[in-house]
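Q: What changes when manganese (II) ion is included in the input?
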Amino acid sequence: MVSRQKQNADLVKNYEYAWDKYTKEDMDRVFSFSEGYKDFISKCKTERECVKEFIAIAEKNGFKDLETVIAEGGSVKPGDKLYANNMGKTLALFVVGTQSLEKGMRILGAHIDSPRLDLKQNPLYEDTNLAMLETHYYGGVKKYQWVALPLAIHGVVAKKDGSLVEVVIGEDDDDPVVGVSDLLIHLAADQMEKKLAKGIEGEDLNICIGSIPISTEDSSEKERVKKNILNLLNQKYGITEEDFVSAELEVVPAGRARDFGLDRSMVMAYGHDDRVCAYTSFEALMRIENPEKTCVALMVDKEEIGSVGATGMTSKFFENSLAELMNLMGDYSELKLRRALANSRMLSCDVSAGFDPNYPSVMEKQNTAYLGKGLTFNKYTGSRGKSGSNDANAEYMALLRRIMDKHGVTWQTAELGRVDQGGGGTIAFILAEYGMEVIDCGVPLHNMHAPWEIASKADIYETMRGYHAFLMEA
Ligand code: MN
Ligand code: MN
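A: The predicted holo structure follows.
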C-alpha cells in the first residue's frame, strides 16, 4: 500500500534546481563545460567567427565539407560527418544515420547572430577634431544600454581585388577600445525628462575612434583626424575609406566572458542569445557517432531581424544542402526530400527569459523559467493571443518529457512573460512549415539583448545534455 505522502509526491510536479542533484564530480563537469563555452563566446562575437570556429572543431572531429565531396564526385554513407557552409554565416552539420533520410532527421537549430551596432556603409567622419563612425543598430536593442561602455570592432572588409581582410580591434588587453559617449548627468536635465526609448536615439549611436590630427605643413587642412585614422587603418589592414562600402563591421562589447556571482554559478557574456544554444547544440552533435536517424545542427544568421535573406532560416539553403546530401547517397527525389523534412523532429534552440526578482511584474511565476532549473521548453512563443508562434503538439512535448526524464535532464517550461506584456519569436515556425514537429527550448537568461547577458552554468550544462538526449532518442 502506497503511503499518503508518496501519493502526493507523484501527483504534484515540482520543477527543481539542477544544483541540488549534482555530485562533486557533476559539479566539476558543469564548471569545466562552462570554461569551454566561455572561451568560445569570448572569441566568437560575429556570425562569421562562429562559423569559422565551428568548422575548425568539426574538421578535427572528422567532418568534411559537403562542397568538397560534391566537387570530388564522392559519395556519402551512414556514419559520415559533413558540413555545409553558406557564405560563411550559416552552417549545417550532419552526422549521417543508418536509416534512410526519408525517415526523417533529428535537428537542432540555433542562431548565431546577436544584437549589436553595425557600421554604416559610409561610416567615417570628423566632427570638432574627433574621428567618428556612424552606426545602424542590428536587432532589438535598448539604445541607452550601448553608451559609455568599452566596445570592440569585429568583422570583415571585402576589397575590390577580391581579398577579404579580417578585423578584430579591442579584444587583446593592450588593444584600444572604442565607444559611444553619454551625456554627463550635470547637463542631462532635458534628456532625463524623455521616455527611456527616446533618451538615446538610434542616429546618435556614433562611435568615437580618434582625436590626433595627421601632421601636415598646412595646419588649416581639413579632416586631419579622420586622415590620421585612415592612415592607421591603411597601415594595419591595407584598406582605404571606400573599402568601408564593402565591409561588414560589427561593433560589440569588448572583453571576455566572466564568471558571475561570488559562487561563480553564472556566466556574464555578450551574445548568449543565441550562441549559448548554438554552442550547446554543436557540442551535443560532436558527441554523436553512427546514429540511426541522421542528426543535424543548424547555425543560422539573421534571426534577430526576422530570419530574412540568403543566410537567414527562410532561405532555401538547408533544403538545398539536404537535396545534395540525398543525391550523394544515391537516394534523391523531390518526394523523398519532402518526406525527409516532414518526418523530422526539431528543437528550435533559443534562449528564454529567466525570472528576475528585480522585475517580477512582467512574469507570471507559474509559467516562467528560473535560472538553475535547467533546459527550458517553450511550447509556444508569440504575443497577444500567441500570435506569430509555433505552438508545438502536445504529443511531441510528451515524447520529449519521456526522453528528458529517461536521461535525468533537469528541465522546466515557460512562457516569455505575462500575457499581453510583449513576446517574441524564433526560427521554429519556419521549419514547422515543412510539417515537422518543432518546439522551442534553450537556456533562460537575465538581461536578454543587453550588451552583457547572464546565464546559469547549470542551465548551460543541462541544455547540452538535453540536446544530446534528443539526438540519441527522439
Ligand atoms: Mn534568440
Ligand atoms: Mn534575440
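Observations recorded in class: The chain has two domains: 13-114+270-473, 116-253.
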